[in-house]
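Risk mitigation, structural track. In case the binding assays with beta-D-glucopyranose fail to produce interpretable data, a predicted complex structure has been prepared as a fallback.
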Amino acid sequence: MKKTIFCIALLINAIYTNAQHIAAKNSIDKRVDALLAKMTLDEKIGQMTQVTLDVVLKTANGKAIQPEQIDADKIKNAIEKYHVGSILNVSGAAYTREHWHQIISDIQAEAGQSRLKIPVLYGIDAMHGQNYVQGSTLFPQEIGMSATFNPELAYREAQITAYETRASYIPWDFSPVLDLGRNALWPRIYETFGEDPYLAKTMGAAVIKGYQGNDVSSKYNVAGCMKHYLGYSFPLDGKDRTPAWIPDRYMREYFLPSFAEAVKAGAMSVMVNSSEINGVPVHSSKYLLTDVLRGELGFKGVIVTDWQDIKYLHDRHHIAATQKDAVLIAINAGIDMSMVPTDYTFYDLLEQLVKEGKVPVSRIDESVRRILTMKYKLGLFERPVGNPDDYPKFGSAEFTAASLKSATESITLLKNNNNILPLKKDIKVLVTGPAANTMRSLNGGWSYTWQGDFSDQYAADKNTILEAIRHKIGKDNVAYEAGASFDSLQNIEAAVSAAKKADVIVLCLGEHSYAENPGNIDDLNLPSAQTELANELAKTGKPIILVMAEGRPRIITEVESKSAATIMTYLSGNEGGNALADILFGDANPSGRLPVTYPRYPNALVNYYRKNIENGNSDDKNGYNPLYEFGYGLSYTTFAYSNLHISKPTLKDGEALTVTVDVKNTGAREGKESVLLYTREEYASITPDTKRLRAFQKIDLQPGESRTVSFKITPKDIAFVNDVSKTVTEAGEFKIMIGDLTSSFNYVSSVAPSRTGKL
Ligand code: BGC
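Fallback model:
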């Protein structure tokens, strides 16, 4: 009875909330119509124009004066003359909350004096926390959040990021990155949720929901921005913003699902891929921006360009003979807002194009309607600047604890020979390697500054790996010698002689911080100085605990062969040092799993879902043989899988299978386990993948405890994109794989193979 009353109450609440949403939407539509009717062409084009903060800052000798201040004449020019609708970014460094308050207040004050008083939409790259404000809570980068295999943590991270972004008076976050991280060379791998479409779409949708909440006008929510639509992450040569070649069906199979899911989750905006696919710059692709994104996925929000990308249609891509053609092409493709961002050329050129009749006013109205709708939804007309006192939890212990939890669940134990880990606390440790004593290798790029190069100053109160270990077992037990920088040797002898006096070597290798193009590499191998340091240390015979702090899986095969234990920390944020020390010394049990394949060789960069032909056979050397496979990760306890059961042998349309498996903690301590369900279709009209992740659940088990984990599989979950770009499920035998268990079922379709399926 109680349950029934509860269900009825839930239903009434859902109907009521839905009715409220419809009423709010109608009222926003009316307000947008009324405002649009009053706007001049200039005012409309201004709304579509986004400039960077530097454009409106006071300068001396061509540089923003410190501390940065809004220049009264420049902001007047931007708002009064050009009617600018949006401003982005930060100039050089992270500001205090007070400083942000001043900057945003000055901007909105000017907007408040304009004829129609339309507030400015301020946007920022808050990628792993509000990384451009001092004292904020920095989480693991997306690659680490994905390694937790825990969407609840991603949701919480996004909630906290939204809170701290609004606490810096900014309502729009250019995040999450939904690009599939499947080319290990690409310098933005760490910004992604890794190589698997299902994992990426699950984590991405959780982040969108965490940012936007149920009511995005709330002072604690922000608009999310899916990026970088579409296919940005798969450049052939692995370098940032270089050409990708992606057939349509392949695009839909692997790269589109994370965006499709985020659209379903209500994502309010999207940023476009700066590069080109199959020779077509995405900023010029009506097919991708309008037909697929709006037509097929039903996206209703704002499409913003990436940095200067309309200009680049002329300057870099050479598909527009003039800047004016570039604007025409991009607007016709479906762009709503141009991140110009350093001048007003877009505004001038678009105005000319409308006056010449080349762009209809109706096309302008469409975009402005979307932008105004977003501003109303965000509550900017009511509250252009937030109230400083509304954010008592900014940088709080509660938020720090959430970051620590995420970092702890992300860190991935890859090797633990003879259970050398966890270490005892009464031993002598040498901490060494270039990543050992810098916050830059914990936070990566997009941390306080674009390149993350000032993390040691801004996060001076946070613990590097060395500091965290010293806190954990006492300074006297911990020696430190860097031994090498990231790419050159530095007093290697001192490191070797310190190693001889230690019981264990904690060797911290990896990468310095970088973002975008400056992170390009020609060689995936770890720089030789780091390998040499490892080799010299190994000669001491002391056990090496190898810690990899890096944004992408650099090749470590030689180094790793010398380690007794290997731990991947990714870029685990401001609490990464503490989380690692907890794991090293047994105060936490690792539960992260690799969200990317860790390659063994630089020229064997194959993703785990690989085709059967990539598995090789006895007479060739095609064999898939990574150092560690996607989904791999150890614990200090052990788990046994048994009783894999499928509810029936045959799946039909309109039905679902229930798959259950028993998981038991067979070790001596509590542990978290990510239970991953993969399927394989044995034969299909398009060569099937060897395996694909279709579902996962993370559970927590006490020693000796057992749990039955249950999954539902529908025909849609095992579909693929066929030769005519349609999503279909073909009849045949499917294998289910969980842990070391397998079982099979048949899918029998009652309809002829569909050629009209939808994503
Ligand atoms: C990046 C985007 C970012 C934008 C604004 C671009 O260079 O590709 O990810 O949102 O800059 O900072």
